[in-house]
Amino acid sequence: MTTASRTKRQAEAAPRSAAPTPSLALYEQVKEHIVRRIQSGEWPAGHRLPSEHELVAQFAISRMTANRALRELVDEGRVKRVAGVGSFVAETKPQSTLLQIANIASEIRGRGHDYGFELLAAERIAAPADIAAWLDVRLGESLFHCLCLHLENGTPVQLEDRWVSPRMVPAFLDQDFSRMPPSEYLVRHVPFDQIEHLVDAVLPTPEQAERLAMGLGEPCLLLTRRTWSRGIPITMVRCLHPASRYRLGSRFRADGNPGWG
């Protein structure tokens, strides 16, 4: 078999989800492939990663390229290498626990309650001044926008107002959000390496209060989140929760491992 034929067969054998992003360097494509699986939960902490030899065959790359991808993931704290054994998904560190992106649907179902979702808007519009500043884009630049309502046992518990960069997530509005809400889609399919969380106590606007089925004078908790990939903003979302129905928090053990229950 010729070298060209062998390379073609290796490329065809690679999983569809491992399709590289053409604009990235080869080692970054391998990193993106691994990070996607870690963030989606497909490869949990302790999962053994493909070896350098397997990555070389799967992506038709050099051993040096595969080594660089794994080495940088180790430096970023995502992967742990054990000499003579292999590479493994690293345990979540305390700061990751505090800054993790929660899946509200899973939280609600985990309590044994019914989860409901309503997509109120999904559009592509010009960025207003405050959003342009948050996402570091020009005023009026075209962005994706969606507005969603999350319900627990039929009662609204979160109003999600999200802005997404078309540059980073060009297929965002092509998704069926009735099957997978926007936040879950982004976590599963768009690798990120930085998260920012801000929490404020606010009063809702009349429109927000109506959508959340609450009184105008009742306080809300506002969680503002931004995510980045290689320094480029991916999304900015404001999640508004009636304070009487929802709490924001985190729990972890003193040894740095997450605790549940």
TrEMBL record:
* PANTHER family assigned: MANNOSYL-D-GLYCERATE TRANSPORT/METABOLISM SYSTEM REPRESSOR MNGR-RELATED, TRANSCRIPTIONAL REGULATOR PHNF-RELATED
UniProt cross-references to PROSITE patterns, sorted A to Z: HTH_GNTR
Q: Per its UniProt entry, which superkingdom is the organism in?
A: Bacteria
Q: Does the keyword Repeat apply?
A: no
Q: Which CDD domains match?
A: WHTH_GntR
Q: Where is this region: Disordered?
A: 1-22
NCBIfam families in the record: his_ut_repres
Q: Would you tell me the protein name for this molecule? A: Histidine utilization repressor
The Gene Ontology terms for molecular function here are: DNA binding; DNA-binding transcription factor activity
Domain HTH gntR-type, chain residue ranges per copy = 24-92
Q: Which SMART domains match?
A: HTH_GNTR, UTRA
Key words of the record: DNA-binding, Transcription, Transcription regulation
Tell me if Ribonucleoprotein is a UniProt keyword of this record: no
| Classification via InterPro entries | Bact_HTH_transcr_reg (IPR050679), Chorismate_lyase_/UTRA_dom_sf (IPR028978), His_ut_repres (IPR010248), Tscrpt_reg_HTH_GntR (IPR000524), UTRA (IPR011663), WH-like_DNA-bd_sf (IPR036388), WH_DNA-bd_sf (IPR036390)
Positions the record marks as coiled coil are none
GO BP terms: L-histidine metabolic process; negative regulation of DNA-templated transcription
What Pfam families does the record tag this protein with?
A: GntR, UTRA
